[in-house]
Amino acid sequence: MNGETNMVQSQISEIPIFPPGDLWSEEPPVESYRHLKQLLLLLACLERFWKNRQDFFVAANMSVYYSTRQRKSEEMRGPDFFVVLNTERRERKSWVIWEEEGKYPNFIIEVLSDSTANTDRGLKKQLYQDVWRTPDYFWFDPYSLEFQGFHLMNGEYQAIQPNDQGWLWSEQLQLYLGIVEEKLRFFTSEGELVLTPEEEADTERARAQEAIAQVDAERQRSALLRQKLQELGINPDEIA
Questions:
Q1: Cβ neighbours around 3 below 10 Å, total
Q2: What residue stretches are annotated with the Putative restriction endonuclease domain (predicted)?
Q3: How many CB atoms lie within 10 A of CB 52?
Q4: What distance in Å separates the CA atoms of residue 156 and residue 179, rounded to the nearest whole number?
Q5: Element of type H or E holding 175
Q6: For residue range 61-100, what is the model confidence (pLDDT) as tens digits?
Q7: Could you say which DSSP state residue 68 is in?
C-alpha cells in the first residue's frame, strides 16, 4: 500500500503547476520622454492603420511570460514594442505564452538606451532568435538614430538590407520602417507614411479645405466670365 501511495505522490509531484494566466506586466518605466513618445507613436500608427483588423495584438513596454514557472530574471522579458499575429485583438495585462496557444511575438522593436543597448544587441537578440523564434527583430536609438533590422532565416538572424530610402522591410507586418524627423515610422509597400490618427485628421481637413478653395475659385472664375460677357452685351443666361 505504501508503495502505491508513494507512486501516486511521485506522479502528482511531476504535474507542472502553472501560475495564473492574468499576470500583470512588471516592466519598469521607459528611459526618457523621447523613448515614451517613440513607443506611443508606433502604437498609434499601427493601431490606426489596422483599425479594421481583429487578428493581432500590439503592445509596448509589456512583460512576456514564457515559462510555466515565474523566474522573472530568466523567463520573463519585456520587449519595448511587439506584435503578435493571428490572435484575438483584445486588452491584456501582459502576454502569457501558455495562455495564448504558445504564440510568441512575430515582430519586436527594442528602443535602445545607455542602460539596455548591450542587452538588446546581445542577450535579447539571442533569446529572440533561439528561444522565441521571432521572425522580425529591429532596434532603434532615438538619440544616435542607430537603426538595424533582422529577419530569421534558417534559424539565424540575417541583417535586413535597406532600400534606396534607407528603410527596412518587415516581412511580418508587410511594412517598411524608416526614420523621419528623428523618429522611427512605418511606411506602406507603396512608400506612403503610416499616419497617426491626428495626422490623418489633419490630412482630411487639408483636403476639405483644398476642395472648398477649388469651389471658391470656380465661382470666382464663373462670376468673372459672366461679367465679361455682360460687358460685351451678351446675356449669360441666354447662352446654352
A1: 7
A2: 23-175
A3: 5
A4: 26
A5: strand 175-180
A6: 999 999 766 554 457 899 999 999 999 999 999 999 989 9
A7: S
What digits encode the pLDDT tens for the residues 28-66? 556 789 999 999 999 999 999 999 999 999 999 999 999
Task: Identify the DSSP state of 57.
Answer: E
Report the candidate in 191, 140, 144, 196 with the shortest Cα–Cα distance to residue 169. 191
* Contacts for 190 with CB less than 8 Å, ≥ 6 apart: none
Whole-structure pTM value: 0.74
Give CA–CA dist 237/240, Å, rounded.
8
Interatomic CA distance for residues 112 and 151, integer angstroms? 19
Cell numbers placing 180: 523621419
Other Cβ atoms closer than 10 A to 78: 19
Question: DSSP states of 2-39 as a string?
Answer: HHHHHHHHHHHHHS--PPPS-PPP-PPPPS-HHHHHHH
Of 41-45, 54-58, 152-156, 232-236, the poorest mean pLDDT is in: 232-236
**pLDDT at 233 exceeding the cut of 70:** yes
Max intra-chain CA distance, the chain: 121
For the chain, what is the total number of helices (H) and then of strands (E)? 6, 12
Q: Give the integer Cα–Cα distance in Å for 170 and 90.
A: 23
Is pLDDT above 80 for 12? no
Cα–Cα distance for residue pair 153/207, rounded to 1 Å: 44
Q: All 3 cell numbers of residue 17?
A: 503547476
As a whole number of angstroms, the distance between CA 44 and CA 35 comes to 14
